[in-house]
Design brief:
The complex is a heterodimer of chains A (529) and B (709).
Chain A: H1 2-7, H2 9-24, H3 30-52, H4 64-83, H5 89-96, H6 108-127, H7 131-151, H8 156-187, H9 192-202, H10 206-220, H11 231-238, H12 241-247, H13 250-264, H14 279-301, H15 306-327, H16 337-360, E1 362-365, E2 371-373, H17 383-386, H18 388-402, H19 408-422, H20 426-452, E3 463-464, H21 468-483, H22 488-498, H23 505-517
Antiparallel strand pairs in A: 1-2, 1-3
Helix pairs in contact in A: 2-3, 2-6, 3-4, 3-6, 4-6, 4-12, 4-16, 4-21, 4-22, 6-7, 6-13, 7-8, 7-13, 8-10, 8-11, 10-13, 10-14, 11-15, 12-16, 13-15, 14-15, 14-20, 15-16, 15-19, 15-20, 16-18, 16-19, 16-21, 16-22, 18-20, 18-21
Chain B: H1 4-12, H2 25-43, H3 49-72, E1 78-89, E2 97-106, H4 108-131, H5 140-160, H6 164-182, H7 189-220, H8 225-240, H9 247-263, H10 272-275, H11 281-290, H12 295-302, H13 304-308, H14 311-333, H15 338-358, H16 362-389, E3 399-400, H17 409-423, H18 429-443, H19 449-475, E4 480-481, H20 507-522, H21 535-542, H22 545-552, H23 558-571, H24 578-602, H25 612-620, H26 624-629, H27 634-679, H28 687-708
Antiparallel strand pairs in B: 1-2, 3-4
Helix pairs in contact in B: 1-8, 1-22, 2-3, 2-5, 3-4, 3-5, 4-5, 4-11, 4-16, 4-20, 4-21, 5-6, 6-7, 6-11, 7-9, 9-12, 9-14, 11-16, 14-15, 14-19, 15-16, 15-18, 15-19, 16-17, 16-18, 16-20, 16-21, 17-19, 17-20, 18-19, 18-24, 19-24
Classes of the chains: A mainly alpha (529), B mainly alpha (709).
């Protein structure tokens, strides 16, 4: 029992912090209220350390939890400073000037609590070993984000985005829940291990295939993959940039983890090679990946809004990660597509955050005279003259997203390519290569706007927000894009270890199989993925 | 220990050991200095802080190197594993993983290089703190020291790497620093042109190195020295048993050699080095005389086991080396810019080093690198002191009798000692190291090697002449000097032009000059330590990878030479021992050169620009003297044969590009946009449309799955 609890230590810390932060946000003293962010950071740091000490499980990927949870906590720590000054900024300023404090008006506590809850959900997705658990974890990831989008800025557009996100999210949840129900119907169990045993013994029935494909398509919503990608641009644009940065990573990580969990029931531990996905599933993923990359990149070409551009770029990157999933795990770093996807997720998390953080650091004076978030690509023009540091951060992150050597994105993409080549998916490699080339067009637009273009003399200069944390996050991400390269090999080895299938998984399943027949209370060994 | 293979393995198979991890400080301290100076630049520090930080950190790096040498110097090769830097694999088989760690391979050859690189870098950084002081306010000071430290970092990567890829990083890195520092005065068109020239000419050499590196990987399946040397030992054994080496092993040295010729300024790629003197003088001293340009020598010495298996490469190295030595010496004789004379003399001395490698005396080459590093740094820094004090004046026709000007004594002594070493005067360090190379050239069997010996000997005479031509003209004769055109900003020298007062070097410059004079003289001492291996350097080379293989290659190189030497020693014949009669011959030649310089440039000299005999000789020797002054028109030849045709080709290609390629690219760029436009209506912002899209997409995917499986 205690061993099973040890798996959940990071989640427990985060959840405890959630409860405290939620109350703390209501404190009368401004100092206590501002402690919310610091407490959140402390909890994430503690979760990071605990995640690294996650016990080795005897599931299919024994080292999966440590890498995944540490990555989630690490990137969350990087996202946190971007959040500074997102909620209650104007209200807090009025209070500081002497206005009466009204606990009903503040949202800071809720905001950080939802932040933590969502991160907890992502981690639970990795720990889950049951369909019901998976569903709950996914919803725990998403539900707080709906509210975060809506309260991120007082503008109407944010509320519109929140509502859209919520309804479409519900539709997607219904889709994958329906898929889960079919899986249960086909196998008679919600336990992933039991489903795996069932599939191994009897193969995939039609209803199980249908269920799996529906689940995959439903979860595609979380990673913003086609055909569930429609919401992305509207929601990312409507939400405040810091929240968009959060949306572009956390739900995506959760979705990718759930996809790996689901695919593990049908592939990667089967047959001689041990890494083959059934044809039907492979075709479905192939279609999703190709559509996602192509739609994301071509639509990004047409954008004049930097936030929409980054939204479409995040769609395209989901497509790249799916390529790794199709390639599946393999014996070497170069061949292990799963590890490549997990490593790419990390690279993407860092470089995408950098781009969003630069946007979040900039404001332009809106029509009503109040500063509004920078959104258009044109708002970046002349940035080099005003803030060379931010312009460099944007340049490095955009070039890394483009996959230019020697930046981080290149190393991420390289293993995706080698793993897909190793798996014989030449068609996908060609599609991905063409898409990467197309992507150069729009990433270079960001670079050109911030580094080369001069500002129109009559246009307003971009104003840099006073929120230091956002610039800090931009600088850290840019430094990471350059500096982490040095440790790229080490991180790749770590992701490879995380995504290397357990050679003794078969034995484990054999022990497990009869145990599943008995009542749950008598389950002798806990199985954790 | 008689079996060469076991000896090689013993020397090259030092296992990774964590107790030596502190040696990583040697490259990392300069990197730290580079980052700190970069920060100082960003913070707008205008004090001498960047300079002193650099000096301090480099000094610590030197101390670490020294203590490392004292602890491990005699222990064979050490491998210090830093971290996995690069690992790209595309399969499980051998040769399908390209891996390169940030790891150090340290044997005695590395120690030799690192000792003088860190030691000289510290001294020259100290010199620079005074020399560059005028740029403190503009922020150039911090920039200078940042690049300077970066150079030391890159040079340590180059020399200490345990694989060819890290060496390549260092190789390109020092090239970059060289470019940045030559172009330090980036508002000066000539400096920018020189920087570009250095960079572009080096590209040609680097192409060779890159190809060599790739071929090495293709053939050996690895880039790590230990594995390469182990494989080479096997090939060596096959060759000794009467087999032949694979063609790749004969070709790789030729490619590496091209890289070495570029970096070390050998024919035909030497043209960048004389122009590189546009950089600040301390940079010329450190990068373009003492350290970076010896990287090529290091590369060949490191891979001497492979060169020994490729007679074609060895012969080329020897001939090109000797040819460069002679050509550069003739040009150096006719130049009036004293820094340029030193530049050509560097090219010429590098030629000697390659001659030494070509005739397989790695000891001679390495020893000459070592002594040359000291005396050439001395010479450059003395020139720099003159340039600094006389507002950029470097023309030997406009400076005279400086030894008699108060405050310039140290500089004059430094110049004299430097010139004596360069001329190979009896008993100086240059004397011993040069003779070692020349003697081996005479006795080593090879294609026309005896002739190379004569060329080398003649060049030694020319060297003595041009070195003392500079010394006599600038430091002796009537006292007379004219200020250069360089303005010193607002440092109190408002008395330019009329009544010009040179400002004599301060403590930092004098201290460094004295240290280097002592170093130049003391560099002769190692010759007498460890007599068995021709001196301390010989001992170092002997216990490195270069030493073992060479000794093993039977009937070839030093082994044969030493056999003959031993025989001669038994017979007691004076002329039987090449080293003994070489001493005599080169003493005589050197003395004649110095004497000639005295006669030609001191007799009847009345003013700085008038030396009757020299002027008469120059008129007499027309057109040869003019041609030599114009550097044998090599630059013009390059211009006509390479630059102009390339330019023409570029113009033609530009036309094709505009007409054809641009159109194609525009067309290609058009298609994705069109596709995107067709998708655009799907993103109309309406919730219900999105829901329909999602549902439709699900049905579409289910249909595809149903249809295809």
């Amino acid at each position: 029992m205690s061993e099973k609890l040890a798996l959940l230590h990071p989640e427990m810390v985060l959840f405890a912090a959630t409860c405290v932060v939620m109350v703390l946000g209501l404190a009368r003293s401004a100092v206590w209220r501002s402690a919310c962010a610091w407490l959140t950071g402390g909890a994430l740091a503690a979760a990071f350390v605990l995640a690294l000490r996650s016990p080795v499980t005897d599931g299919l990927f024994p080292h999966f939890l440590a890498y995944t949870k540490a990555m989630i906590a690490g990137v969350a720590l990087l996202i946190l400073p971007v959040m500074s000054g997102t909620v209650d900024r104007w209200y807090e300023r009025r209070v500081a000037k002497g206005a009466a404090f009204d606990a009903l008006r503040v949202t800071r506590g809720e905001f950080y609590a939802f932040f933590l809850l969502s991160v907890t959900g992502v981690m639970l997705c990795a720990t889950a070993d049951d369909l019901i658990w998976l569903f709950l974890a996914l919803e725990l990831t998403s539900l707080p984000t709906y509210i975060m989008v809506a309260i991120s800025t007082p503008r109407v557009r944010a509320q519109e985005a929140g509502v859209k996100y919520f309804f479409l999210g519900a539709l997607a949840a219904a889709t994958f829940l329906y898929g889960f129900a079919m899986l249960f119907g086909a196998t008679g169990s919600t336990s992933l291990d039991a489903i795996t045993i069932q599939f191994r013994g009897e193969g995939l029935s039609t209803i199980a295939t249908l269920g799996l494909v529906m689940a995959l398509v439903g979860v595609s919503f979380k990673i913003a993959a086609a055909p569930m990608h429609f919401y992305t641009a509207d929601v990312y644009q409507g939400a405040a940039s810091p929240v968009s940065a959060f949306l572009a990573f956390m739900p995506k990580a959760a979705g990718l983890i759930v996809l790996i969990q689901l695919l593990a029931t049908v592939g990667w531990s089967w047959g001689e090679a041990g890494d083959a996905l059934p044809d039907a599933i492979r075709v479905a993923l192939w279609v999703i990946a190709t559509l996602t990359m192509t739609i994301g990149n071509t639509l990004a070409l047409l954008q004049s809004s930097a936030k929409r551009l980054l939204a479409y770029s995040s769609i395209a990157h989901s497509g790249y990660m799916l390529v790794g999933l199709i390639a599946g795990p393999g014996g070497t770093v170069a061949r292990n597509g799963l590890a490549a996807a997990m490593f790419y997720l990390l690279c993407y998390g860092v470089m995408n955050l950098g781009a969003f953080a630069v946007l979040a650091s900039l404001e332009v004076r809106g029509r009503d005279g109040e500063p509004a978030e920078a959104d258009a690509i044109d708002d970046l023009r002349g940035l080099f003259r005003v803030r060379p540091g931010l312009a460099w951060a944007m340049t490095l992150c955009a070039l890394s997203l483009l996959g230019l050597p020697p930046l981080l994105g290149f190393w991420g993409k390289l293993v995706l390519f080698t793993s897909a080549i190793g798996a014989g998916e030449i068609g996908l490699v060609v599609v991905m290569g063409l898409n990467s080339a197309v992507a150069a067009f729009y990433y270079l637009r960001l670079v050109r706007a911030s580094m080369l273009d001069e500002r129109d003399p009559d246009a307003e200069r971009p104003i840099v927000t006073e929120a230091l944390g956002r610039r800090l996050a931009a600088g850290l991400s840019a430094a990471g894009v350059v500096g982490v390269v040095v440790f790229a090999s080490t991180l790749q080895s770590a992701s490879h270890a995380a995504a290397t299938p357990n050679p003794r998984y078969d034995e484990f399943l054999k022990v497990e199989a009869p145990a599943r027949q008995s009542p749950p209370a008598a389950t002798p060994t806990a199985r954790h993925n | 220990m008689s079996d060469p293979t076991t000896m090689l393995l013993a020397a090259s198979a030092g296992a990774p050991d964590s107790s030596v991890a502190w040696l990583l400080q040697v490259p990392l301290l300069p990197l730290l200095a580079c980052l700190l100076c970069g920060l100082f630049r960003a913070w707008g520090v205008t004090s001498k802080l960047p300079g002193y930080t650099t000096v301090l950190l480099l000094a610590v790096a030197f101390v670490v190197t020294l203590s490392g040498y004292l602890s491990f110097g005699g222990h064979g090769a050490q491998v210090v594993h830093g971290f996995d830097w690069l690992r790209v694999s595309w399969g499980d088989g051998p040769g399908e993983t390209l891996s390169a760690g940030f790891s150090l391979y340290i044997d005695s050859l590395t120690w030799l290089w690192m000792l003088f690189v860190t030691g000289l870098a510290t001294l020259i950084a100290l010199y620079s703190t005074e020399y560059m002081a005028e740029d403190q306010k503009t922020g150039g000071y911090a920039r200078y020291f940042s690049f300077f430290s970066l150079f030391v970092f890159m040079m340590s990567c180059l020399v200490m790497s345990d694989n060819l890829l890290l060496l390549y990083l260092g190789w390109e890195g020092v090239g970059l620093c060289s470019y940045l520092l030559i172009g330090y005065h980036y508002t000066k068109p000539s400096a920018v042109a020189a920087a570009k020239k250095a960079f572009i000419v080096n590209r040609v050499g680097d192409l060779g190195l890159a190809l060599g590196l790739m071929l090495t990987f293709v053939h050996f399946g690895t880039l790590e020295y230990r594995e390469i040397f182990a494989r080479l030992a096997e090939i060596q054994a096959v060759v000794e048993a009467g087999g032949s080496a694979p063609w790749q092993v004969e070709l790789i040295p030729l490619l590496l050699m091209v890289g070495a010729f570029g970096k070390s300024a050998q024919l035909p790629l030497y043209v960048w080095l004389p122009d590189a003197m546009e950089g600040p003088t301390p940079v010329s001293a450190l990068i373009h005389a003492a350290t970076m340009v010896t990287a090529g020598v290091y590369l060949v010495a490191r891979f001497l086991p492979m060169f020994a298996l490729s007679p074609a490469a060895l012969g080329t190295v020897a001939w090109v080396g000797a040819g460069t030595a002679l050509l550069a010496a003739t040009i150096g004789m006719a130049q009036y810019d004293i820094k340029r004379v030193m530049a050509y003399s560097t090219v010429s001395q590098l030629g000697y080093m390659f001659l030494g490698l070509g005739v397989l005396t790695a000891t001679g080459a390495a020893y000459h690198v070592f002594t040359h590093a000291f005396f050439k740094a001395t010479l450059f820094l003395a020139c720099g002191a003159v340039m600094h004090g006389f507002a950029g004046q470097l023309d030997l026709r406009r400076l005279s009798g400086l030894a008699k000007v108060p405050g310039w004594r140290v500089t004059a002594v430094a110049m004299l000692v430097g010139c004596l070493c360069l001329a190979g005067f009896v008993g100086t360090s240059g004397f011993f190291s040069k003779d070692m190379i020349l003697a081996e050239a005479f006795v080593t069997p090879g294609p026309g090697y005896r002739l190379l010996g004569w060329i080398g000997l003649a060049t030694a005479g020319l060297t003595a002449y041009y070195a003392f031509r500079v010394y006599f003209r600038v430091f002796h004769g009537p006292v007379e000097f004219h200020a250069g055109e360089e303005h010193h900003g607002d440092d109190g020298h408002d008395d330019h032009g009329h009544g010009f007062h040179p400002h004599a070097p301060g403590w930092a410059i004098n201290l460094v000059l004295i240290a280097l004079v002592i170093g130049s003289l003391a560099a002769a001492a190692p010759y007498f330590i460890d007599k068995e291996h021709h001196g301390w350097v010989g001992g170092l080379v002997h216990s490195s990878t270069a030493g073992e293989i060479v000794r093993a290659s039977a009937g070839h190189g030093e082994a044969a030479a030493h056999a003959g030497e031993a025989a001669a020693a038994e017979h007691g014949g004076f002329f039987g021992d090449p080293h003994r009669w070489m001493f005599l011959a080169s003493s005589v030649v050197g003395a004649i050169g110095i004497l000639l310089a005295w006669v030609i440039h001191m007799t009847g000299r009345v003013s700085a620009d008038r030396a009757p005999i020299a002027d008469a000789l120059k008129a007499r020797l027309r057109p040869w003297s003019t041609l030599a002054e114009k550097k044998w028109l090599v630059d013009e030849l390059y211009d006509a044969l390479i630059r102009r045709p390339l330019r023409l080709l570029a113009h033609i290609l530009a036309l094709i590009d505009q007409a054809l390629v641009d159109g194609l690219v525009d067309g290609v760029g058009f298609a994705p946009r069109l596709f995107g436009k067709s998708l655009r209506p799907s993103q109309n912002g309406l919730l219900q449309n999105y829901a329909v899209g999602m549902g439709g997409g699900l049905v579409f995917i289910l249909l595809v799955v149903w249809a295809l499986s």
